[in-house]
Design goal:
The structure is a single chain. The chain is 34% helix and 25% strand. By secondary structure, the protein is an alpha/beta fold. The protein has 4 domains: 1-75, no CATH class; 84-210, Ribosomal Protein S5, domain 2 (2-Layer Sandwich); 212-336, Rossmann fold (3-Layer(aba) Sandwich); 342-471, no CATH class. The protein has a 6-stranded mixed sheet, with helices on one face. A 5-stranded mixed sheet has the order 11-10-12-13-14. Helix 13 (304-314) links the parallel strand 12 and strand 13. The longest helix is centred in the middle third of the chain and has 20 residues, at 270-289. The two termini are 57 Å apart.
């Protein structure tokens, strides 16, 4: 077979030689491969020549004795080779046309980097950041700039970039940044890949790429500001990646926040519940596209009655909820998603409540745990639920116990024949949300809200009408 290949090379038919190599490369001996590869050393190559010799090098590296064979052309001993990897990166030409270029990295015990053959590039920044010895070869020299630096350095330091990610960028400090981002992102998407075109710290990025479960903050806000950065500090505490690394994957502040009006007007609040559900769906799809499990980290600002609906919409998916402390202007973790607060209890240690004699089919429930006073102006069968300690001062550690008792209270009423619930809440927002996840959409529960400008108590949601986020159509 060597004779056939040599004749094709003599005639300049490198594309035909490449096709022959793909189909019958195994028929070449190691000695033949070394002889042919030696022709590529120390001279400029055409694009077709580059592709042929790249394929030939891949064939050599597939052999069990690749270290011995490669030592004959690389100028170092076979014991100095460590391992080799393929890496890929997107390139875009002046016409906006793109393709994925493949490279081969061969690590060795020495120092410095060198292009073994083909396109010559400046490796100084990669050498400085890597601190290890390596050879590199590119499938094609049909690219400009140094956007190969990020994927090359990552591969030197940590091995292959995990699927489905593609890195592109010139090294800058501890991170990197790419040009032609949008064109490269479209190219990556067409290949079923996720482009990462910038990062402040490649080592922190690695933590995100290699994790099994991605942490996804979603903060509900009523005014713009720096709240997401503040919230993310608590969310990513203990992680080696953070908000910037998520953004490097294409997420934006808008993806990670849900905006509510400063003053939510009277009416049906279902549009806000559906909007929140769609945010959850987009983030879960994002994690799915990365091939990862997810955990939502949820922070809230708004009326508890609305977040009761948000809890129903969220359901029992993996989440962690946070309480905002106004006195210290920070967020504090309350609990993860757990079935603890869906367990019925007959011991009410935190709450006291009133029950009317006889059977009821409809009940108006005033839940009075926070400082303001909720009330139903026109309801003959009002049941009050109050905290046994001082209102407005529930310890965070007792939130789950309070939710469990509230859930048990609703079950108690249902057991006594109540089929229609009217509810008005004065509770911490997190308690309202967790109660929603526990209750779900099984009962006919109409939620009311007091509107101060109108001085009216009006219905805003019916929990039975709410679907969990994974059933909301986009």
């Amino acid at each position: 077979m060597k004779f056939e290949v040599e004749e094709l090379l003599r005639l300049g038919k490198f594309s035909t030689a490449s096709e022959l190599l793909k189909s019958r490369g195994k028929n070449l001996s190691g000695k033949d491969i070394v002889s042919l590869l030696s022709r590529a050393l120390g001279k400029p190559l055409t694009e077709e020549e580059e592709r042929f010799y790249f394929l030939l090098l891949k064939e050599l590296l597939s052999r069990p004795n690749w270290k011995k064979l490669l030592s004959e052309i690389a100028g170092i001993g076979d014991r100095e080779f460590k391992n080799w990897y393929l890496f890929r990166f997107p390139v875009v030409n002046d016409r906006g046309e793109g393709r994925i270029v493949e490279g081969i990295l061969i690590k060795h015990t020495g120092k410095g980097g060198r292009v073994l053959f083909g396109k010559k590039v400046d490796l100084s920044r990669v050498e400085s950041a890597a601190g290890e010895g390596f050879f590199v070869v590119f499938e094609s020299g049909e690219f400009k700039g140094n956007s190969f630096e990020a994927p090359l350095l990552y591969t030197v330091l940590y091995g292959p970039v995990p699927e489905p990610f593609l890195l592109s960028g010139v090294l800058k400090g501890n991170g990197f940044e790419a040009d032609e981002e949008e064109a490269k992102r479209r190219l990556a998407l067409s290949e079923g890949k996720v482009l990462i075109s910038r990062s402040r710290d490649i080592s922190r990025l690695r933590e995100l790429l290699e994790t099994d479960e991605v942490q996804l903050p979603l903060l509900t806000v009523r005014k713009s500001g720096q709240q997401l950065k503040l919230f993310s500090k608590e969310v990513f505490k203990g992680c080696n990646y953070g908000l910037e690394e998520l953004k490097s994957l294409g997420l934006t502040d808008r993806d990670l926040t849900f905006q509510l009006p400063s003053n939510i007007p009277p009416g049906n609040w279902m549009e806000y519940v559906v909007g929140f559900s769609k945010k959850l769906r987009r983030l879960s799809d994002f994690a799915s596209n990365l091939g990862k499990r997810f955990r939502f980290h949820l922070g809230f600002d708004g009326p508890a009655s609305l977040f009761l609906g948000f809890g129903v919409a969220t359901g029992m998916v993996p989440f962690t909820v946070y309480h905002y402390r106004k006195e210290t202007s920070d967020y504090v973790r309350v609990t993860d998603c757990t079935r603890d607060y869906k367990e019925r209890t007959e011991e009410f240690r935190e709450l006291r409540f009133s029950l009317l004699e006889g059977k009821m089919e409809e009940a108006c429930i005033e839940v009075k745990l926070a400082s303001h006073e909720p009330f139903f102006p026109n309801c003959s069968s009002v049941l009050e639920v109050e905290i046994k300690t001082k209102r407005g001062n529930i310890e965070l550690e007792k939130f789950v116990d309070v939710v469990r008792e509230l859930y048990s209270f609703f079950n108690l009423l249902y057991d006594r024949g109540v089929r229609k619930f009217k509810v008005i809440l004065s509770v911490p927002v997190v308690v309202g949300f967790l109660l929603g996840t526990a209750i779900g959409n099984y009962w006919d529960i109409e939620v009311y809200q007091y509107f101060k400008p109108e001085e009216k108590v009006l219905p805003v949601l019916n929990l039975r009408e709410i679907e969990t986020f994974d059933r909301i159509s986009m």
